[in-house]
């Protein structure tokens, strides 16, 4: 079990290292902003729904409260007309409407509190998004500057230019080899030329002797 746990931890560590290496700061910042904008869109939809609930409850409360006032006026009108029973029934309905109005009022106040809270959080999210966008521009500029500085430092330190240096070294070796071959060829050519001169000299010496021998033979014959 301990071995499996160590293998799992090692695998997760390697995966996290690969993810960290693959993450591009600028692209990740843009992705975070897109995620934030989506969250704000969801929050706006939730706020809109809560506002609709708040307004509906407010409307129900106002309508019920108006009905309470209407039943009280009707009860007074019935009493003036001498109809106590009708006045009583109007007051009973007024009481029921008053209880319902109180319930709607409580619900409306709760819904308004929730809506105000959501509005505040939505405003904070938008402020945070604006701040993140400003910071994104700054971080993006810093990232580009850091990349440029890294590339320059690598070039100055020779990192990344090994191929060019190795290529120049190979070409220098080839030039030296060509020069050596040319020098050797020149020495061989000079040696052959010297041998030819000695051969011509030997040939010339032999011809002189042959001529002198023929002259002596002619003189003897005489």
Automatic annotation (TrEMBL):
Residues in coiled coil: 115-188
Q: Which InterPro entries match?
A: PspA_VIPP1
- What highest taxon heads this organism's lineage? Bacteria
Name one matching Pfam family.
Answer: PspA_IM30
Which keywords does UniProt give here? Coiled coil
Q: Which residues cross the membrane?
A: none
The record, for PANTHER family, names: MEMBRANE-ASSOCIATED PROTEIN VIPP1, CHLOROPLASTIC (PTHR31088), PHAGE SHOCK PROTEIN A (PTHR31088:SF6)
The record's family statement is:
Belongs to the PspA/Vipp/IM30 family.
Q: What is this protein called?
A: Phage shock protein A
Recorded source organism is Tumebacillus avium
């Amino acid at each position: 079990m301990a071995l499996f746990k160590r293998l799992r931890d090692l695998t997760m560590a390697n995966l996290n290292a690969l993810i960290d290496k693959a993450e591009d700061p600028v692209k990740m910042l843009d992705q975070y902003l897109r995620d934030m904008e989506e969250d704000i869109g969801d929050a706006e939809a939730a706020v809109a729904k809560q506002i609709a609930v708040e307004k509906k409850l407010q409307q129900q409360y106002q309508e019920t409260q108006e009905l309470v006032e209407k039943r009280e006026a009707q009860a007074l009108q019935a009493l003036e007309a001498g109809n106590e029973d009708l006045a009583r029934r109007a007051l009973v309905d007024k009481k029921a409407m008053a209880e319902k109005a109180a319930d709607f009022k409580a619900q409306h106040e709760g819904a308004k509190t929730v809506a105000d809270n959501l509005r505040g959080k939505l405003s904070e999210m938008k402020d945070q998004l604006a701040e993140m966008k400003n910071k994104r521009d700054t971080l993006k500029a810093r990232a580009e500057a850091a990349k440029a500085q890294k590339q320059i430092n690598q070039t100055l330190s020779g990192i990344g230019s090994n191929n060019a240096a190795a290529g120049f070294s190979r070409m220098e070796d080839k030039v030296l080899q060509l020069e050596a071959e040319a020098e050797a060829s020149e020495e061989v050519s000079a040696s052959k030329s010297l041998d030819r001169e000695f051969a011509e000299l030997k040939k010339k010496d032999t011809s002189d002797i042959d001529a002198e021998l023929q002259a002596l033979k002619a003189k003897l014959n005489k």
